[in-house]
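Section 5.1 Outputs to date
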Amino acid sequence: MAIHEQTPIQEHIFSVLVENRPGVLSHVVGLFSARGFNIDSLAVGETEDPTMSRITLASRGDERTLEQIKKQLNKLIDVIKVHDLTEEPFVDRELMLVKMKNAPAVKDALKALLAKYRMQVSDENEKVLLLECAETRENTKKIFEALKKIGITEIAQTGAVALSKKAPKDY
């Protein structure tokens, strides 16, 4: 029996242009569910063309799994184009809203994070600080770990949105 080396697990971000109509997101999510693929991040929104939506999703797997994801997405009738952004320069952002106790020790601990990342205090009252952060997926993970140590009361986070840095005619 031959032993095959597995390729390393990687995370890829896919930008999927789809028809903007009911049920399309369900078909995409169903494809992942039926094949045992996991979606690590998901964001959907209408594009500059109101007949299309862009689904930005992140998924992990070995090279073979990621290739299967692309092939299976391309087979869906409502999918117009699948773009693996990980293969080129791109910009991604996730939005994170974080509620924390409003205390001098918390404010002191936050100073370095506020200076280092795209993060700001969005709202504040005598009991609560509400932080807003729009950062890369990689950085939101780091920020989340740092904020857990300071003391998160509540958190809400979006999936990543991403666009290629290339001009549309280049891809």
